[in-house]
Amino acid sequence: MSGMDVVVLAGGESAERFVSLASGTEVARALAGLGCNVRLVDPADVEAPLGRPWEESAFAPVAPMPGPPDPAERQRLARHTQTALTRPDLLERLRRADCAFFAIHGGWGGSGHMQSVLDIAGVRYTGPRPHACAAAWDKDRAISRVSAAGVRVTRRVKCTPGDTDHAAEALGLLEHGPVVVKPAAGGSGIELGLMKDEPSLMAALSKSGEDRLVEEYLPGREFSVGVLGDRALPVVEIAVAGPVYDYSAKYSGRGVLRECPAQIPEALTRELEHAALQAHFALTDGTRSYSRVDFRCDGEGRPVFLELNALPAFTQTSLLPLAASKDGCSFPQLIRRIVALAPESTGLP
């Protein structure tokens, strides 16, 4: 890869902005170490719309990880991002690069909108194509597709603000025990919570104007399986001090244990790997892509699919790099393999 021209896309307008910037920093450092000519582009950076050449001192990771940007800040970032993505000079810069490494999480990156722009512009980029992003982005639809592929899934209700019928269904789910409430689209454990009674559940559903997914709480162990191309990476077990693996637990580093490979029976390992591959091929571009698939066990110890992240993070605490390292693949080697997976751009007329 020495001499390769790579643009790292990171930041953007989503609630996962700071996670994305941390991912982009680590990816850019790895690419520079591989001898690449690296430029880091944050579409929301109004001061540098064409990006900044990689200099390690200029992109030091922020610790601890800041919380998500507030709604007003996200609106400002969205305006800048939209402007950047319509700049002919930026799109030409991306076209001239050998590859764009997609380290943007959530928002227009998670939903596939940015990938659509890159396809139209004829840019080669890593990660899933727009249709695969969209398939994984809507968690309720993703669960339905994975279920159709034969994977065990959660009982859940998607609640839209003002929809009293679905709110009543969610309350019915609560009658069987605690429930987990999360945004119907998004990642990084943002606004993820455990609700045990009607007042807390209704407060969570009315907290914002966005759709929410209400799922039965599964009391068993939690696992994550990375998929790279056509093979599953070693299983990671996550144990948290709190009730759920939310944003704070993921990025504060407190009260979390991540064990890889997970110390579990061989039969459970094989079951998790098989289910992860089924989910991966149901929702992504398969052998040209990568993902991270999350599971939690029910009361009988059976793994249940929770969600698939089609653009998992590359921070210092992220699970995909951890699993790859236990498979004998260092972080720079992982980044090299992901770039190698990226298909050539076909462009659109």
Description:
By secondary structure, the protein is α+β, with helices and mostly antiparallel strands. The chain has three domains: 5-127, Rossmann fold; 136-153 and 218-310, ATP-grasp fold, B domain (D-amino Acid Aminotransferase, Chain A, domain 1, 2-Layer Sandwich), CATH 3.30.470.20; 156-216, 2-Layer Sandwich (Dna Ligase, domain 1). Helix content is 39%, strand content 19%. Strands 9, 10, 11, 12, 13 and 14 form a six-stranded antiparallel beta sheet that branches. Helix 1 links the parallel strand 1 (5-9) and strand 2. The longest helix has 18 residues, at 266-283. The mean pLDDT is 90.
What is the level 1 CATH name of the largest domain?
Answer: Alpha Beta
Largest sheet: 6 strands, antiparallel
Q: Which CATH-level-2 architecture of the largest domain?
A: 3-Layer(aba) Sandwich
CATH topology title of the largest domain: Rossmann fold
Question: What percentage of the residues does DSSP assign to strands (E)?
Answer: 15-25%
What proportion of the residues is helical, as a percent range? Answer: 25-40%
Order of helices and strands: EHEEHHEHHHHEHEEHEEEEHEHEEHH
Number of domains: 3
Query: Shape from CA axes?
Result: globular
Number of helices: 13
Structural classification: alpha+beta
The N- to C-terminal Cα distance equals 30 Å
* Average pLDDT score: 90
Number of strand elements: 14
Give start-end ranges of low-pLDDT stretches. Answer: none
What is the radius of gyration computed over CA atoms, rounded to a whole number of angstroms? 20 Å
